[in-house]
Write the C-alpha cells for this entry.
Amino acid sequence: MTSDSSTVRVPLYRLAHSRSGDKGDISNLSLIAWDPDCYAVLAQQVTEARVAEWFGYRRPVRVTRYLIPTLHAMNFVLEGVLDGGVNDALNLDTHGKSLSFHLLDLRVAVAPSLARRLPDVPGDALAPARAAPE
Amino acid sequence: MAASPFLIGCATGFSGDRTDGAQAVVDSLAARGGGTLIFETLAERTLALAQLARNADPDSGYEPLLAELLAPVLANCLRHGIDIVGNFGAANPPTAARRIASLAREQNLPAPRIAVVHGDALASPEHRALLRERLGPALDDMDVVSANVYLGAGEIAAALRAGAQVVVAGRVADPSLTVGPALAHYGWAMDDWTRLGRATMAGHMLECGTQVTGGYFCVPGLKDIPDVHAAGYPIAEIDADGGFVVGKAGGTGGAVDARTVKEQLLYEVHDPARYLTPDVVADLSQASVQVIEPDRVAVHGIAGHARPDELKVNVCYRGGWLAEAEISYAGVQAEARARLAADIVQRRLGGALAMRTDLVGVLSILGDDGGTMLADRPAGHARDVRLRLAAEHADARTAERLLREVTALYTCGPAGGGGVRTSLRPRLNMVSCTIPRDAVRSGWTMMETTP
C-alpha cells in the first residue's frame, strides 16, 4: 500500500458511498467513488485482501472485487459473512444492511491536495482532528 | 423525432413499503399519455409467510394490503388505459384477482380484464421428487412451507398482449415485472438478449421503489436529499431498443441523480457481467449514467447474454425458535453491569443455548454472532447501555429459557436493570436450487368476469 509522509489517511466515506445487498449468506457491498480521482485511489488501495482483512472478524469464505470503471465503482462480494443470512443469523441486522458503513470506515492514503477538497464530517470519530495515528 | 418511450412506474418495493406512492405515479403516467404501473411486494420470505396465512385461511395468502394499495388508483388506471402488474398474488393469485374484481365493483367501475399467472408453486409429487434430486436427503428432514420457482416475463407479456388490464402473479423475478410490459409493448423476441438485458436493468432500477429516488440513501452532510420524507416512486422511460431513463413521479420529494442510480444499479448484484434472471443474463459491467436534467438519468452500456438454462427455486421450511431478550442499564458502570448481566445469563444457561450478546449503545449490529468483534473491544464506560441477548433452538421450551433468565435479572441480576422485553418467534429457513425449464408448467388465465 502506498502510504508515506506525503499522504494523509482518510476514511473511505470521504471518497465514496456504498450500499449493502444480501442473498443468503452472501453480502455485496458497492463502493462508488465521488469522481475519477477518488476512484483511482480505491482501485489501487481497496483490494480484495484489504477488505477480507477488514471483515476478518466475520470470517469470510471468499472476497471478490469487481471493477466497473465506467461507473467509477467497484462491487465487493463477501461470501459467508452473514452468520447464515436473514433466516439464520441472531444479529438484529440479519441482512447485514449496516456492513456498507463498516466498509466506509476503512482508511486509505491520499495526497493532501485531494484530501483538502473531499467532503468531511466534522465531529466524527474518524474526522481529521481526532483521528488516532495508526 | 423518436417515438415517445414506454413508461413504467413502480409504487412499492416490498411488502411493508408505504402504500401511498401509487397516486402520484398514476397522475404522472396519465399526464404523459399512459403506461404501466407495477407493484413489487414479495421478498424471499414473504411468500412463505403468505403460504402459512393461506393454510390458516384459504381466502388469504395474497398481499394483505392489496386493497389499500389499489383502491386509490384503480379507477384512474382503468380510465387512462394504465395496466397494472404485480406479484401481489403471493401464495394465492386467484383470490387476489377476485379481490381486485370486487374492488372494481365496490367502486362501480366496469369489470377489468384480470389475468392470473400460475405455475410458480411447486407442490406436485413430481416436483417434490425433482427437488429431492436437487437438494438431496436434507430435504427429507425439512418441514417445507413453500417451494416456488422464479418465473420470467413471458406469462405477463402474453397476458397483456391478450388484453389484460391487470396481471396478478405470485413468484416472478422482480425485474420481469418490468420486462413483461415492455415485451408486450414493443413485441421484442424472447431471445433479443440486448433489449431484454436493458429492460431487465430498468426493472432492477424500479423494483425497490424509492431506493432509486433518494430513499435509503441519505447521509446528512455527505449525501443529502430534498424532502426525502415524501420521496416519489420511480418511473422508467424505456425506448424501443430497451434503453432507459430513470425518473420519478412529478410533484414529489426525493431525487434521482447519478449517485442514487449507481447505488441501485449495484444493489444485490454479484458479478456485474452476469446478473441472472429467468429472462436473460444482464451485463452491467460497462454501464454508465448520464444526467439528462434534474431527476432524469439515462443508463447506457447495458448488454445482455443468453438466459440461464435452469430456473431458480426457493424452498422455505420451518426453522427453530428465535428467542430475544433485552434489559437496560444507565449511570455509573452501566456497561460493566450489562456485561455482568450477560455473563450471569450465560452461566445459568450453561451449554443449553448458543447466545449472541449485543450492547446497544456500545456495539450492537456490526459484530458477528460468534462475538469476535465484541470480545476484541475493551470494556468501556458507556453510561446508557441496552443489553440484548438472542439464541435459537429447535425446541421452543429450550429457547424460552433465555427469556426466563433475562426476566429473572429483575431481582437476581446486577443493580438497576430496567425495561425487560422478551420475544419468542418461530423462524422460517430457506434453501435454493435450480431446476430445468421444462419441469415448470407455467401459464396464465384470464379471469372470467362474473355478471
Remarks:
- Chain B touches chain A through 51 residues (CB under 8 Å).
- Chain B has a mean pLDDT of 97.
